[in-house]
Amino acid sequence: MFRPLPDSPEGPTVTVFVEGQPVVARDGETAASVLLRHLGTARITPVSESPRAPFCMMGCCFDCLAEIDGKGSTQSCLVPVREGMTIARQMGARKVVA
Amino acid sequence: MMIFDVAIIGAGPAGMQAACDLRRRDLSVVVLDEQPAPGGQIWRGVERNCQPGSHLAQGLGAEYRQGADVARSFRASGADYRPLSRVWQIEESSKEAMAQGWQVFVTRESQAEVIEARRILLANGAQERPVPFPGWTRPGVLTVGAAQILLKSGGLLPEGPVWICGAGPLPLLYAHQLRKLGGQIAGFLDTAPRDTLRRGLPHLNGALRDWKSLAKGLGWQAGMRLSGLRRETGVTQLRAEGGDRLERIRWQTPEGEKSATAGVLLIHEGLVPSVHPTLSLQCEHAWSDAQQSLRPVLDPWGETTRSGLFVAGDAAGIDGAKAALAKGALAAIGIARSLGVLSDARARHARVAGDRALSKARAARPLLDSLYPAPEGKIGDDTIVCRCEELTAGQIRAAARRGAADPDRVKAETRAGMGPCQGRQCGYTIARLIAEAHDMPRADVGFHNIRPPLKPVTLGELASLGKTKA
Amino acid sequence: MAQPDYIVIGAGTVGVSLAYGLQKRGQAVCVVDGGARDFRAARANFGLVWVQGKGGNLPAYARWTAESAALWPGFRDALEQCSGIGVDYQKPGGLAFSLSEQALRDRRAVLEVIGGGALPEGVEMLDRDALQARLPDAPLGPDVAGASYGASDGHVNPLKLLAALQQGVLQLGGEILWDWPVQTLRTTDHGYELTGPDGAKLRAANVIVAAGLATSGIVAPLGIDSPLRPQRGQLLVTERMAPMLPMPCSGLRQTADGTVMIGATHEDVGLDTGTTQASATILAERALRILPALGGARIVRQWSGLRVLSPDGGPLYTQPESYPGLWTVSCHSGVTLAAVHAERLAEQILAGALTGDTRHFSEDRFHVPTPA
Prior knowledge:
The complex is a heterotrimer. Chain A is mainly beta. Chain A is about 10% helix and about 35% strand.
């Protein structure tokens, strides 16, 4: 769906883990952007359990809600990648964890 | 606890300009912004991207690169800049004129905190106008703004057959940027009405005051023609089809129905001011027919109907980045005046240059508004309107017909607007469907009540504020 | 509609429950509703159909509440069928948590007073382990000592209930005039006349004023005292969560949609319907003492409503002696009492007089002449 500019990367990169898989991300990229190019979706909706992907990328659609470093319902488009970050799609309704 | 003179929400053009100007008057300023770096959406990633010799910065254009200078001044201004800060509530802590103050509730790095300030400037920008069509929730469909953000923040280009559909300066600019950076576009579906000349002519004369912008826009259009890109005009009834991914798009033109395979569909139908904070604070708003959106009612200093609360930039009405700089400068003067560090007479004198800049920056806006009106096409009953609660136009229409023309009643009956986005995606469409069901002017319907929090906040974050106080 | 048999002022839960009950009994009812910015307690409700612990100072209220809870399943079936709108009603019993051993003992004492010396029928006290066994997906916080369980308690989506009742009234041939705030109410030779927006008039032999906090103002010009006061309650609601609470709890309830509602404060702030972060924090702290695992759940909305309270907290049903056919009906518990309002109270109003327990709910109880 999206690919890096041919002569990129410019600047440093980090490694994040998308559902367990290491993925190289450009510094400055957001978790949503990584989800988009790696999995193509960010979540399964709690209402009809249909897939959604980041839509607005600026914090106002909430379709990029994902689990970032274990924290559910995080707006992944507002989270810049960090070395070692774990990113996972949010599958349906949140579950409480004791 | 430190009480700032001013808390600015948003570090785009308006917020940065206001912060610089207020600091120059020695006022203490805190700037809260959701992004990791200054620039807002228009200049997103400008510091990182504008390294010497950057191919990306060249492709993004001269106006983008100008943001680097503003960001540099902002960094040097001495404002307490707090990036990655999610503002989730604003409350007035004291209404007494001398002690007037506000509390801004913020989460940063999962830590909630309260910031106190005597004045608030909302410079929180705009969002793209949501226009529902069948399949707009399907992965593979994004806004043009989203794609441009992916370009600015990750250096990403769309791939697969890429289609752009919509109207306005942004799709033209983005197509232009993609061309320069080696991106591929399968086609451009123009939804603007075809009678451009008739619509535009009455506003052309005024717009010539900003002939540079006009020339640039014409240049983008000419570039598109020269590139041989497939372009369709008079496009309506867009559909995004497929299973769990976008596979095909379908549209109508006056010549008939057409379709094409698609991997990415980028849509854009203009911008609307981000009014959730001012709506939640129950400021008065006015309906703009030209921009088909609400905007807070402001006095000439940028102050809302709530004393001590100011708005600048596109959050006050869509006028673009140059106007946002001017509005930020004017709001800074207004705030300095309201804090008593600038007399009324000096403030009036100080604003002359800002007024002139704003007027010039707005010169082309009536032309743009008339060329790219909000789409009026009928929304099919099966089309999802509320993306969070997955409610269709048919469900909203049924509720709208069942009782009073009151968006809060429709919200209560259907849950439309009760999801995490708080109606940012569905609010205007719901109001439009209510207006349609009751055959009344859109301006008379209003908007549903916006409740706190402005952004979802965890129970843990809420509770933590109790412990720190105890 | 030609002149209706009844005009009901107020299309909130109380008003439309009565209108629905009267319309079902063959009466032609016209309901008039206020403006968009009215207080509208019906839209701020927590959604409990709640029996346990109610009526400590008013035994008739305890019985009336229990009767309504018993009527609720049948009322729901008929309403859903009539309106075509599901209201998400369930009666799994309900829990009231105690956050210390002392609080648990106090809770038992309160319930035993209501039960006349023993726990009321259907009520049991659960210690911490017994409670945890009933909430297997909701790990309890260390402060939770136990809870009282009431088998008659249940919950409903109050917004869907309101929509279903309104739709039910329409479906049965009744009429609802939206955005028709009443300007004046006066007597005529054959009953009553209402003046609404732009001088519009409505007449009927019978009028029920069920306008919540606005009731007092509407009947005051007739010399009728309806002693109501507002009490603000603030509430929070989370995003949709996987099922974790199998039954409603006092101050904590998971809806059919999965959202968890957290309520509610009790504030005497007049007619202020605002919300405060301070109250949100108090509600969050209490919820996390009960269910710490909710700490990561996101609150998507906070709102407030104004409870409609009589001096003793019980319902107010009055037909003033000098105004036959004019009723004032108001209460705090319009959702719990919706069934008994639609069935029993509508019947009594139709018969022209309160009978049995409801005689205790006349506002005459606040006008006992003081001996000289």
